[in-house]
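Page 47, continued from p. 46.
Same chain as before, 245 aa.
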Amino acid sequence: MRKCLRLQRWLAAWCVASSAQVQALQVLDVRDGVGVTAKLALKEPTRIKAEGALIGEVFGNVWQDKTNPTGEIVVETDPAKGELYVRPLSPTTTKPINLFVATRQATYTLLLQPVDMPADTIVLRDRTPRVARGATSPGQAPRQLRALTGLLATMANDSPTADTRVEDTVRDVRLWQATRFTLLRTYATPGLIGERYLLTNLGDAALALEPRWLDREGVLGVAIEQATLEPQASTHVFVLRVATP
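Result:
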């Protein structure tokens, strides 16, 4: 009952903010495993919905009163509509928040940048042909999502589990001009490889980063600690891909 009341309050707050002005709408073209960036209202709930599908599961550093009190983002679900209502736990944070969202057909990687703005709606629009999306069994996306989230947490906290094979590399990888992209460490688990990079902006202007820029064959997800990189600043980048024989 308490959860239902909280969701009702969030819905009410979102409706009030929407009626005060024409509500903005962020429509994102997404596909399975490719990261996209969106704005996240700092102090108001942001609704996330998938066009033509129901969101079934969400993973990330989600706040839970007892199990994860240090989480970054508060998530309320509307199972009947298959939608999420999210907001940052801290009303002053500027750190981008990574979130994995799964429908029955696909898993989407979101990099949410907190911004001081009114309540908003994010629409995930997947134009992948239905035949291709339908090739994934209904239970496969959530299982893969759990595996990806677990590996991402392992890399971010540098806390490998017993079944994780870790290898230090420290090898520069060619990326863009005026940047240095260094592969620091790889994490191998059954079926997945995680790569932890350090990206440094060597230029004179700020660099706005998009996870989709790092998409390549076999990549299932990309997470970036900072969406905007000032000159001479660095950020960690995590790439999750399919393990090849």
